[in-house]
Amino acid sequence: MSTTHALEIQGLSLQSLAEEFGTPLYVYDAETIRGQYHKLKDAFSGFNSKLKYATKALSNINILKLLQKEGSGLDCVCINEIKLGLKAGFDPKDIIFTPNGVSFEEIEQAIELGVNLNIDNIPYLKKVGEKYGENQPVCIRINPHIQAGGNAKIQVGHVGSKFGISYLQFEEVLEVVRKYDLHIVGLHIHTGSDILDADVFLKAAKVLFDMAKHFPNLKFLDFGSGFKVAYKEGDVVTNIPELGEKLTGAVNAFYQDFGRELEIWFEPGKYMVSESGHFLVKTNLIKSTPACQFIAVDSGFNHLIRPMFYDSFHHIANVSNPEGPKKIYNVVGYICETDTFATEREIAETKEGDTLCFYNAGAYAIEMSSNFNSRLKPAEVLVMDGKPHLIRKRQEFEVLLQDQIELDF
User: Fold this and answer.
1) C-alpha atoms less than 13 angstroms from C-alpha of 274 in its C-beta half-sphere
2) Are strands 355-359 and 316-318 parallel, antiparallel or unpaired?
3) Which residue ranges make up each domain of the chain?
4) 30-272 with 274-400: one CATH topology?
5) Catalytic annotation present for 78
6) Is the dihedral of CA 268, 270, 275, 277 positive or negative?
7) Contact 180, 130 (CB under 8 A)
8) Which of 145, 271, 392, 407 could connect to 227 by a Cys-Cys bridge, CB 3.0–4.6 Å?
9) CA dihedral (198, 67, 23, 398) positive or negative
10) Which one of 76, 292, 336, 357 is the catalytic residue?
11) pLDDT digits (tens, 9 = 90+) for 7-42
12) What is the CATH number that goes with domain 30-272?
């Protein structure tokens, strides 16, 4: 499968957006987000499926409101993500809270807010039982010991992962459930991101199917996510229709064995928003050395850390001069650390002042951004129904001092 890298969004040129709102700038296409949501809903229409958008991918409240209107629920990993979701209009029953390593006070806050609780460790399962007993519905996150995903840092279901309760500890889980008469309403599994093989999902699903028979009051099974999107031309991606077809057969067979239907949940994050995102930067300078030619831009890993953190590939285009002759460049940032976005990349001839676009920048871009080197965070724009909407203003210098307490020396 190939991916295209358009120079416009809903008829608006990327260059014109850079000129109107300045750079660096995150721009999102609402139609792409809607399309990804409905692609999954259509593929999983053969059973009772529910989508819970993974808030951590992109948590701007306008993105949350957009998905809420489409019918999505939310997957949250932090109490503040829950609060954002509630403010965006989500019903607590449509939110699942799946934290890792948080304080138990945060668990208590989530219970008070009325969202679905997903516990991934035995000590907290015991604490919930001791304090709430059968009165608190609980989902349990299982670690299936399945290693899958495009990068070691996004493989979260293997035996050495900190996430989930090992399936080898399942008997201990059952003992805790019996001791406190816990009300188990869900089972959850998530193996990683950028998963291509539909059989990985089926293998993980079988783990939950086998465990489900121990919990007669289940309401849902949650298969997490991990669907891969295209970054390069010719990238192989998760075949969503094929996955939907295979899962439909497996789920309906499970329904027959279990004796009734359950809701089947998924938690897509990157899949929903990654391809909607375009990160626009300005070329500060062209620097030639005996070894290579650099394009230095007005950004760095303070705005897009994925290439440095995950070795991720982002297609880069010169949207000011898209038809220019191709040259080989190293694209780097302005941070006083090594912040190389790309090496030996073929890009249309670039000059100072030209606008470059990093594609697939909708997920984990601004979410992982920082004020490192006292740099300011960019603005965000959502293109919806053919019009650009500023959904986050560009930070100003005062932001750097607003939480500091200046002493009088």
Assistant:
1) 21
2) antiparallel
3) 30-272, 274-400
4) no
5) no
6) positive
7) yes
8) 271
9) negative
10) 336
11) 999 999 999 999 999 999 999 999 999 999 999 999
12) 3.20.20.10
